[in-house]
Design brief:
alpha/beta; Rossmann fold; four-stranded antiparallel beta sheet; 428 residues; globular; GMP Synthetase, Chain A, domain 3; single chain; 2 domains
Length: 428
């Protein structure tokens, strides 16, 4: 199912979004305490914002704005709020997000068309290996979207490989929604317990939270490790609570497809100016059709490439490349600029590494330093040297490595009330 707007020309899509933008600006000026104040303070005449290019007249919205004034972003009476969620708090304190009944319908539509983009059908049975409670928007989004699609679903939640395979044997699901690194754990469990994963009913997996592709859309180390053992179709996604929208890959695996009826997307440099198509930029979003807590020019902190040529699937919309990293997570290490994703990729290609936890901190000389705590399933005395050699081969420099038990790594990953494992800590 491809919405008609997603097959239109770039000019038609732009005109459609500009009409939606003008509606949004009127709504914000009347309903949003935060944005109505911002328009007045910056002397912004919203009637002058007619084109997408005119968005540059409006200051960006930051995560700091949301954290300090989250209640001022709410545009509806409390009686219209149906659901309360919080962001994951990856780069700071979690922010409470509220949804009205209309917003929940919008969320269902978004996930319906997004999972349809990843070849989901009413004939599928999806096994949800994700959190559906604990104020997590993604879990309820998948549930609502699959319900709208008419597909079957079984809510198992994250972790517990034994229960996952018991469910696969009982229910015969055709698709999984999961963090891709958990697929590696499932494969390891299957090998240890004599389970042939390729003989199961599972044919595809929608991968969330972690990249499975490189910038050229080839599978990265994690994606290759999965495919080498489990011959299923892998679809990557990009989404966040703030945007209430997902960018899913289609069968051609060349970027997450933009839904122009749901969201306006800009790609900005460090000066909040647009970047060219062949340059990475920070993803900045303006939500469309959100009633309770719409956002205007919100800076996600995620750095991506984008692509505008039409896709073989028939969609003409912009496509989003894999996330290079978060702007705040950029590391300057011994003369090399890098994002955590390259560290993940190197660690994922080493078979004897079971899990890991990365810490970045400021050293005695005021420079960025990296400590990687690694949980290994090997007795090889040269494990530390092997890991460092991999880093030198790929990055020319090697961070500090500390070998500890996989159990202690798990304790580091699951801290406080986080809903998903934390593998990166920025202590600068």
């Amino acid at each position: 199912m491809i919405p008609e707007i997603e097959t239109k020309s770039r000019e038609e899509i732009k005109a459609f979004q500009e009409a939606k933008l003008r509606e949004l600006l009127i709504y914000l000026s009347e309903k949003s305490p935060f944005y109505s104040e911002r328009f007045i303070e910056n002397r912004i005449d919203i009637s002058s914002v007619k084109k997408l290019e005119d968005l540059l007249k409006i200051p960006v919205t930051t995560k700091d704005d949301l954290q300090k004034r989250s209640k001022d972003f709410i545009c509806v009476d409390s009686r219209k709020i149906i659901d309360y969620n919080t962001t994951s708090g990856t780069l700071g304190d979690p922010v409470t997000f509220v949804l009205s009944d209309n917003d929940l319908n919008r969320l269902a539509y978004n996930e319906f068309i997004s999972l349809s983009c990843s070849n989901g059908t009413p004939e599928d049975i999806f096994q949800l290996m994700v959190t559906i409670d604990r104020r997590f928007m993604a879990g309820i989004a998948y549930y609502l979207g699959l319900r709208r699609m008419g597909a079957g679903m079984v809510r198992v939640g994250p972790g517990n490989a034994q229960l996952q395979f018991d469910t696969i044997n009982r229910i015969n699901p055709t698709a999984l929604i999961t963090v891709p690194s958990f697929l590696i754990r499932l494969i390891d469990y299957a090998e240890k317990n004599g389970i042939d994963v390729n003989a199961t009913s599972v044919k595809k997996a929608v991968c969330i939270g972690e990249p499975i592709r490189n910038n050229d859309f080839s599978l990265n180390t994690l994606g290759k490790r999965i495919k080498s053992k489990w011959d299923i179709e892998l679809y990557s996604t990009y989404a966040s609570t703030e945007m209430g929208t997902a960018f899913n890959e289609c069968e051609f695996g060349c970027g997450g497809h933009h839904h122009p009826e749901m969201i306006i997307v800009e790609f900005l440099d460090e000066n909040n100016e647009p970047v060219a198509e062949n340059e990475p930029g920070e993803v900045v979003i303006t939500t469309l059709g959100v009633e309770a807590m719409p956002l205007l020019r919100f800076k996600t902190g995620d750095i991506c490439y984008h692509y505008i040529e039409p896709c073989q699937c028939g969609r003409t919309t912009m496509r989003l490349g894999p996330v290079l990293g978060r702007k705040q997570q950029m590391i300057k290490y011994k003369g090399t600029t890098l994002y955590p994703t390259i560290i993940y990729d190197i660690l994922n290609e080493i078979d004897f590494i079971e899990n890991y936890f990365i810490e970045v901190y400021t050293g005695n000389l005021g420079t960025d330093e990296i400590l990687i705590k690694v949980g290994c399933n090997t007795q090889n005395k040269n494990a530390e040297k092997i890991i460092k050699d991999h880093f030198r081969a790929k990055m020319r420099v090697a961070p500090e490595i500390q070998l500890i038990s996989p159990k202690k790594i798990k304790e580091l990953q699951m801290v406080d009330i986080k809903r998903k494992p934390r593998i990166f800590a920025d202590n600068r």
